[in-house]
């Protein structure tokens, strides 16, 4: 009896010890789980903040869309890659290959892109796609230096991989490079960018953020008349220039990778002034191409430039780039005369697997139409494009007069207004206010002032839900023009007709122009 009673406290004690140990073990497990979760959340938060800091760099954010948009493309649906610096970014019209030939392509150009960055980018790109052709810009091969900021535009947005580690290690060993640690932990380099945080910093890229980077190509209408291109018929074979050793080695790696994958290669030089592209650089590029048995296309050769239909200044953005009009010509020429002869590629336009690129092509057509509007120098032709153009159903057009617009309109311009459906012919309307709104290729609203003292106003909502208000005041009625979209005045607010064109598909103003029909007969060359 006594023995049994003595054993009870012992058993209770043992059970208590066991329970305590169980609870301690459970607490340890919970602590471990919490620690792991905390570390995981911290790492994700740290990586997210680091990426946001990187994207707060305006230049990286802007051109980084070329890399970021690529991840949205379905795997194994791209047949042609283009890699290189901004000459590629502007010069290779990737959407045009699909538009004209049904060939899906992607442009990986970024400003001053060194080949050491191109290689890391190319390796990463090949993880998702199996291209048949790669078009490689030769400008980096003969560039004397590698710009650190331009290299980081490529490398800082790539996910961590062996190819990235190799690239940053090699770059960090070069003179003038950032430290290896700043590449592995870019927070160190970009930590002060918190001052520039915006909604874009967290990579909230909307569908329309593809514009103006459509399949990587940068669409631009700018024309530069004050540049001189010294095209050569035959390069002086005595002119020499050295290769950039680092870029040379990385280009060799790209070619080896292409050979192992069965990818055809076209080497290219886009149009540039003689300040940027010399006969010596042509010779070096041609020698490299010959040594590797590869085709080399140089648009700085006079016959090639002219055969491609390139024109000064219409197709030239500036001394180192073509605009989109020039890019379309370059891309069509390189396909017709080189790619089409190198390999048979399939027209994918009717393939249901490529519906995504058909949508991009639709946006591309819109954007190219907008570029044509932006460079049109004749008001009557501008109105005709807005009324009868291929995308007119998607435009809302606002017209507001300031000061005076009727005195020197001319019969052709009056006829253009009538063809658009406007009832006002502006006869005897000297210094009268006028408002006109077209939507879907039809006149939605128009009003002309009853006398020179009447100021006009009208407001509404566009087809895509954008609020607008428009005002017109002739010289004696207040002398002003206002076209407000979502609270921002987009009118040029100058004498004559102020025209604002809004695209309901891309949800943006695509042209804003003033036509001074008082100062020029007919307003033909009065675009401002």
Unreliable stretches covering 5 or more consecutive residues: 204-210
**What is the 3D form?**
globular
End-to-end CA span: 112 Å
Largest sheet: 9 strands, mixed
Helices, by number, come to 16
Q: Supply Rg.
A: 31 Å
**Percent of residues in helices:** 40-55%
Class per helix and strand makeup: alpha/beta
Give the tags.
nine-stranded mixed beta sheet; 16 helices; 528 residues; alpha/beta; five-stranded parallel beta sheet
Summarize the structure.
The chain is built from 16 helices and 18 strands. It has 528 residues and is of the alpha/beta class.
Please explain how this structure is put together.
The protein is α/β, with parallel strands linked by helices and 528 residues long. Helix content is 41%, strand content 18%. Strands 10, 11, 12, 13, 14, 15, 16, 17 and 18 form a nine-stranded mixed beta sheet that branches. Strands 2-1-3-6-7 form a five-stranded parallel beta sheet, with helices on both faces. It has a two-stranded antiparallel sheet with strand order 4-5. A hairpin with a 5-residue loop joins strand 13 and strand 14. Helix 4 (94-101) crosses helix 13 and helix 5 packs parallel to helix 6. The longest helix is centred in the N-terminal third of the chain and has 54 residues, at 2-55. The radius of gyration is 31 Å and the shape is globular.
């Amino acid at each position: 009896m006594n023995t049994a009673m003595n054993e009870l406290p012992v058993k209770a004690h043992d059970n208590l010890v066991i329970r305590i140990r169980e609870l301690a073990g459970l607490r340890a497990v919970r602590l471990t789980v919490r620690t792991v979760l905390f570390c995981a959340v911290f790492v994700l938060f740290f990586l997210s903040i680091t990426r946001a800091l990187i994207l707060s760099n305006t230049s990286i954010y802007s051109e980084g869309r070329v890399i970021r948009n690529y991840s949205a493309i379905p795997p194994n649906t791209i047949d042609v890659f283009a890699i290189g610096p901004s000459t590629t970014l502007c010069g290779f019209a990737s959407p045009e290959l699909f538009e004209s030939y049904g060939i899906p392509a992607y442009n990986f150009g970024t400003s001053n892109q060194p080949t050491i960055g191109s290689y890391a980018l190319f390796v990463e790109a090949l993880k998702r796609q199996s291209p048949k052709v790669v078009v490689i810009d030769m400008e980096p091969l003969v560039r004397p230096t590698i710009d650190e900021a331009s290299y980081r535009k490529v490398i800082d947005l790539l996910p961590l991989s062996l190819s990235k580690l190799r690239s940053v290690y090699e770059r960090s060993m070069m003179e003038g490079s950032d430290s290896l640690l700043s590449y592995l932990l870019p927070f160190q380099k970009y930590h002060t960018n918190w001052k520039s945080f915006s909604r874009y910093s967290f990579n909230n890229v909307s569908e329309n953020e593809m514009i103006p980077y459509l399949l990587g190509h940068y669409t631009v209408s700018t024309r530069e008349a004050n540049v001189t291109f010294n095209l050569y018929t035959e390069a002086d074979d005595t002119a020499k220039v050295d290769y950039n050793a680092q870029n040379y080695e990385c280009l060799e790696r790209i070619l080896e990778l292409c050979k192992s994958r069965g990818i055809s290669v076209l080497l290219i030089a886009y149009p540039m002034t003689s300040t940027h592209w010399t006969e010596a650089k042509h010779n070096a590029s041609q020698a490299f191409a010959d040594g590797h048995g590869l085709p080399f296309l140089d648009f700085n050769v006079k016959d090639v430039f002219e055969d491609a239909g390139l024109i000064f200044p219409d197709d030239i953005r500036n001394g180192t780039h073509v605009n989109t009009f020039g890019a379309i010509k370059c891309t069509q020429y390189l396909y017709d005369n080189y790619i089409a002869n190198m390999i048979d590629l399939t027209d994918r336009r009717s393939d249901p697997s490529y519906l995504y690129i058909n949508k991009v092509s639709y946006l591309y057509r819109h954007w190219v139409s907008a570029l044509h509007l932006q460079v049109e120098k004749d008001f009557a032709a501008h109105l005709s494009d807005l009324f009868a153009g291929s995308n007119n159903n998607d435009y809302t057009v606002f017209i507001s007069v300031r000061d005076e617009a009727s005195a020197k309109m001319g019969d052709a311009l009056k006829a253009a207004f009538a063809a658009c459906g406007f009832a006002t012919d502006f006869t005897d309307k000297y210094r009268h206010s006028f408002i006109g709104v077209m939507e879907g290729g039809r006149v939605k609203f128009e009003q002309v002032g009853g006398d020179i003292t009447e100021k006009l106003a009208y407001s509404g909502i566009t087809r895509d839900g954008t609020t607008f208000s428009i005002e017109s005041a002739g010289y004696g009625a207040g002398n002003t023009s206002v076209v407000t979209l979502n609270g921002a005045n987009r009118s040029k607010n100058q004498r004559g007709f102020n025209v604002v064109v809004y695209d309901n598909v891309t949800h943006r103003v695509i042209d804003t122009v003033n036509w001074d029909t008082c100062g020029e007969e007919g307003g033909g060359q009065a675009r401002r």
